[in-house]
Structures are given as structure tokens and as C-alpha cells.
Specification:
One of its GO terms (molecular function) is oxidoreductase activity. Its cofactor is FAD. This protein is an alpha+beta fold. It is 30% helix and 17% strand. The chain contains 7 helices and 5 strands. The chain has a 5-stranded antiparallel β-sheet with strand order 2-1-4-5-3.
């Protein structure tokens, strides 16, 4: 964790001009209990660069090499993997029976002030299973017009996924408060918007939908009115027909 600022700054700089075939998250988490990670780092706060390169295999090493050589990594788990294996990579970290409360927020900047907040909340997690995920956005998705598809939030350079994960029900209040407080602490670095895969508890669905779909919400409501006027197929975050 003492090298977090160096790692995240270097990753941010590299991803700003990286090829579209590379996607990376910077994850403030805990060292996993696996043989490849030295025991002194297992369970301790660390920063992980979790990425996937989907371009031509012969270019892979050249593309990911700058990320593998930031500082001195405590472990390097990068390897050729099948696409299904990539999708299943973290399944074991989110088993049924545990407790999860996730929120999201888009950021306009990831500077020293913002990263100090992320580091502070990583060190003060009530559960070592919780993580803070920095999604480096831009690239191909940012070159699509905001009104071209339902997905609206294409102009933000970063998104934070706040994952509160814990094992005992008695710890729920502390972990939910941690996620909500971090979300509040990051608002000075955000101009709004949210990602509906990590919505957290929703008090005002209309406000939540507006933050996700922006000016596209009205069109989605019109489509719902045309094809499902009686709202026979409501979602958890339901778009009402209008």
C-alpha cells in the first residue's frame, strides 16, 4: 500500500494512451492467500492491477510489459487465459452466503487528493474482503455518442466501484456505513452519474435512473410505453412506461 500512489499514477498515465484491446482496473484490496503471494502480504492492504488484453497474442507482452514493471511487484500472475476462465477468475471471491453492499461513482480526476481518500478508506476497511475498484475508462467506449445507446455515462475518465464484502451479519452496519461514507467522500471529485450494476440501496429510483441514463431516460420510457405499457416486465431498477 505504501506504493499505491506510484502504481495508480503510472497506470493512469499509461492507460490514457493504451490500445483499446487493453482494459485495466486498479484495485485497492488485500493480498490473496495463494502460494504466488508472499505470506507477509496475504491479507494485508495491497494494490492490484487487474487487466485483460484481448488483442493479438504476439503483441500481448509488449502491451502489458509497462504495467508489470511499475515499481517492484510482490507477485505477477499474468498469463495466457481462455476467455471463459477470465470471466470466472473472481467467482470464488463472491460466494453465496456472504454479505455484499456495493456502490459506484464516476470521477473527473484521480489526483493525489483523491488517491489519499482511497488509501485512507482501504486501510480503515471493517472487512479485509472489501475492495475499492478504479475503472480506467475512455478508449472506444468514449468515442460513441452519449445518445447512440441507452448507456449514457461515456464522458467520465474514471469510475469507482465500492465493494463492501463481509462474512458475519452482525458486521453489516459497519460495512454498509463504510461504503456509504466513502461514496460521500468521493463526491468532490465527481460531476455525477452512477453505474447501475453497483447501485447500492436505492431510495429514489427516478433519481438513480436519471444519473445512469441521463437524457436517454425519456426515450427509454417511451420505448417501454410502446412495448410494455402495463409494465408487465419490471426490473429491480424499473423504467416506468411514459
Amino acid at each position: 500500500m505504501e506504493n499505491a500512489r506510484e502504481v495508480m499514477t503510472a497506470c493512469q498515465k499509461y492507460m490514457a494512451a493504451a490500445p483499446d484491446d487493453l482494459m485495466v482496473l486498479g484495485v485497492y484490496w488485500s493480498g490473496p492467500p495463494i502460494p504466488e503471494v508472499p505470506k507477509k502480504h496475504q491479507g494485508e492492504p495491497v494494490v492490484i492491477l487487474l487487466g485483460c488484453y484481448t488483442g493479438l497474442p504476439e503483441h500481448a507482452q509488449e502491451v502489458i510489459s509497462p504495467l508489470r514493471t511499475i515499481g517492484e511487484p510482490i507477485a505477477d500472475l499474468s498469463a495466457d487465459m481462455g476467455w471463459k476462465d477470465v470471466q470466472r477468475l473472481l467467482d470464488e471471491d463472491y460466494p453465496d452466503g456472504k454479505y455484499y453492499y456495493w456502490k459506484s461513482i464516476y470521477l473527473e480526476r484521480l489526483d493525489d487528493e483523491c488517491m489519499s481518500v482511497l488509501e485512507e478508506y482501504t486501510r480503515n476497511r471493517p472487512s479485509a474482503e472489501s475492495s475499492i475498484d478504479v475503472w480506467f475508462l475512455g478508449g472506444a467506449s468514449a468515442r460513441v455518442a452519449q445518445d447512440a445507446t441507452a448507456f449514457y455515462n461515456r464522458r467520465h475518465p474514471f469510475m469507482i466501484g465500492i465493494e463492501a464484502n463481509w462474512s458475519a451479519q452482525t458486521d453489516s452496519e459497519a460495512n454498509i456505513a463504510w461504503a456509504r461514507n466513502l461514496h460521500t467522500a468521493l463526491k468532490p471529485f465527481s460531476s455525477g452519474g452512477n453505474y447501475l450494476n453497483f447501485p447500492g440501496y436505492v431510495e429514489d429510483i427516478e433519481e438513480m435512473l436519471l444519473g445512469a441514463y441521463g437524457e436517454n431516460l425519456q426515450r427509454l420510457q417511451s420505448i417501454k410505453a410502446a412495448y410494455d405499457p402495463d409494465n408487465l416486465f419490471p426490473g429491480l431498477l424499473n423504467i416506468t412506461p411514459k
